[in-house]
Amino acid sequence: MKRGASGQELEETACSPAPVAGFGRREQAMPESSARSVPLGAVERELLRQMRELQGPDERPVQRTRMANLVIYCTSQERAARLNAEIPDVVNVHPARVLLLVADADSPGTELEATVLVRPLRLGSHGFSFSEQVTLTAGRSAVHHLPFAVRALLIGDLPTNLWWAAPVPPPFAGPILYELAEHAQQIVYDSSGWPDPARGVAATAGWLEQIERGGGPGHWRVASDVNWQRLKYWRRMLVQSLEGAEGRGLFESAAEIRVEHGPGAVVQAWMLMSWLTGQLGWKVQTGRVEPGVEMVWRFHGPSGEPLLRIHRRDEGLEDIQRIRIACRIDQRDSALDLFVQDGQRLALRVEGV
Fold it and tell me: Are residue 199 and residue 248 in the same domain, yes or no?
């Protein structure tokens, strides 16, 4: 138990706590505090002040819920605004002290600007706790100060997760990512929309091996691509479809796979097809790329030389939209056609059977 400057008791929790005494009478959701700009050295005091303000006249302990440090790095105010809309959903599932870093290249500022915000978290049907967010904005001349400020604000006995929300692939991020990730246990990035997907994916493969082994003795660190998680339902549908055709000739006879994706989703298609061709036992022989239009690979398969085509649509969802596997099922020319239906769900149509 800690006490603030006014002697008020503050209770800190590193896991999901029981409902907070004194808040059971509140029937409606508590409003979050108003974000306030403060000097960097006054961040902790401002966090306490906002918690007391949200608590009101109640003298019972204020409870902070923090399971981890979450450091988020982005490179524009527009992206920061979108992240601010997503953060409440994140901390409601995994409460954390959030440090949102905004490297604003359009700002000539030479000093870091700190903004503090406290959000109430509902616990069960009646109780509330609090989650903290500190936003650090750096102009182009002050970006190198961000890692030092982050170290001062991290809670030392909690794990640290780094969310790399910049459009630059991690291997090309330079010293800023290396310094922010120095003490992180998890690095999350998003390959969607990379400007040079082929170069970014190739470089990231080597970076992943280096970053996950670079924690040193007794340390661990993992990195994950949000884009791969988006493919969960496609993978599930493909597994179920292939299992349903097992023993009917699909594996041996698959002659061509055609993937259609929307703008910005080429890495999604690339990752999913790398996984699928591995499941089918295909080995790459040759390939060609028509930038912004299509990628074509020829493989060595169990009974021939199948093709893979990844085709970009100019319009539509920024995701995979269709996968068609030409094959023979029960000795008849067939195809599995998987596609997005009504923009919401995946559907399967079997042709020729």
Answer: no
